[in-house]
């Protein structure tokens, strides 16, 4: 199979149902989700498999689900069966609760950083927020799978908790924002 097709040289790309410009909101949305997926790979590459076996397993599942989310968004405006469902959102909530039990109590906002793994997970978190913003715009403009928006919202929370878990497992304290008062009680 040849990797290059030359069909996108004019600034268009293929989506389910036809061709659109590469800066179409639909392409922006699933393209940003692809960025998230790449940074998940970066985070996994930094993890010691013995220390992070459970996290790697869950993140790999999320990588597959992000491909599903991209497929759902690539058919925006079409009546199809979607892959990302609210059951996946609920499962993320369960994972958040399970992993959060490993972290120390939080009283201040947390700055991105600490260990290398945590820093990579924070990058995935902020990219997920950007993807969510792109999906919000898409949902306003076209009919699409709104469960993807909810999934991304929860996923950014999941990355925040995982970054704190990484710091805890590495024995590195979270970097607290010190210029504000205590915000969590």
From TrEMBL:
Which part of the chain is the Cobalamin adenosyltransferase-like domain?
A: 3-166
* Species in which this protein is naturally found: Planifilum fulgidum
Q: What is the protein name stated in its UniProt record?
A: Corrinoid adenosyltransferase
Q: How does it assemble?
A: Homotrimer.
Keyword Cytoplasm on entry: no
Q: Which family does it belong to?
A: Belongs to the Cob(I)alamin adenosyltransferase family.
Pathway recorded for this protein: Cofactor biosynthesis; adenosylcobalamin biosynthesis; adenosylcobalamin from cob(II)yrinate a,c-diamide: step 2/7
InterPro entries in UniProt:
CblAdoTrfase-like, CblAdoTrfase-like_sf, PduO-typ
* EC number annotated for this UniProt entry: 2.5.1.17
* PANTHER family in UniProt: CORRINOID ADENOSYLTRANSFERASE, CORRINOID ADENOSYLTRANSFERASE MMAB
């Amino acid at each position: 199979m040849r990797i290059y097709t030359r069909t996108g040289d004019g600034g268009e790309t293929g989506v389910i149902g036809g061709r659109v410009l590469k800066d179409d909101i639909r392409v922006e949305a699933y393209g940003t989700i692809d960025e998230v997926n790449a940074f998940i790979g970066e985070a996994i590459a930094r993890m010691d498999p013995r220390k992070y076996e459970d996290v790697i397993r869950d993140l790999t599942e999320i990588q597959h689900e992000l491909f599903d989310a991209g497929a759902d968004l690539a058919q925006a405006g079409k009546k199809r069966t979607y892959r990302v469902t609210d059951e996946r959102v609920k499962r993320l909530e369960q994972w958040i609760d399970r992993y959060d039990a490993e972290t120390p109590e939080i009283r201040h906002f947390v700055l991105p950083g600490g260990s290398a793994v945590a820093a990579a997970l924070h990058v995935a978190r902020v990219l997920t927020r950007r993807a969510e913003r792109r999906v919000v715009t898409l949902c306003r403009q076209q009919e699409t799978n709104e469960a993807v928006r909810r999934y991304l919202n929860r996923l950014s929370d999941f990355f925040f908790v995982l970054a704190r878990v990484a710091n805890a497992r590495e024995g590195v304290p979270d970097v607290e924002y010190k210029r504000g008062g205590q915000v969590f009680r």
